[in-house]
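Re-run with default settings, no changes from the original entry. Doing this only to confirm the output is reproducible before filing.
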Amino acid sequence: MSERFAKKWETKRDTQPFTERIKDAVSPPGPLKPRLDFAVRRIELQVQKLDQAAERFSQRDKAIFARIVDAYTKHDTARANVFANELAEVRKMEKLIINARLALEQIVLRLRTVSELGDVVSTLGPAVGVLRSVRAGLVSVFPEAETELGEIGNLLSGIMIEAGQSSGMTLNFDTVNEDAQKILAEAATVAEQKVKDKFPELPPGMPSIATSQTEKTSESF
């Protein structure tokens, strides 16, 4: 880590020249590490909100599943099919939320590593890409997260640009995109398995929940 970057990572204001203090007072960028820690806390808050949303969908899932079983035992196939279609939509949303949560967790882990190693530019690039994908995927199911994730992405972009200027590092966009896709693909794979493990299949003889619907989730990321 360069001396210039080390100072920028966690600057003490009383060690700055008088002219720099005046400049920062007009447009204070702030030390990088506290701003990065602040971004991590904001992401963790979104993870908690996704947990709450996932629990709401889970309860709805159980209720609809019970209605399907009830309709099926009464040989009301038409009613059972209606509920099965509704359950397919709910599980699509559940998978999307789980996917987003896992991706954000990966970002938090990487950002915490940055706090220790100072490897800012190469880590924040993929993180920003993942945040943008998660934000786009959550628009329809969790719109309140869109603005917050957009602001976090802008914050991380600003830190990344400033860190690059301070350290002299440049961003390899091919590597950034590849790393972001790896994070998203891993999250999608784990989310798929979690949905299968968590939620029961429909009774034998019932139409299966359309996988084509649930698989659309990964296309949003």
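Residues 32-73 form the longest helix (42 residues). The chain has one domain: 3-219.
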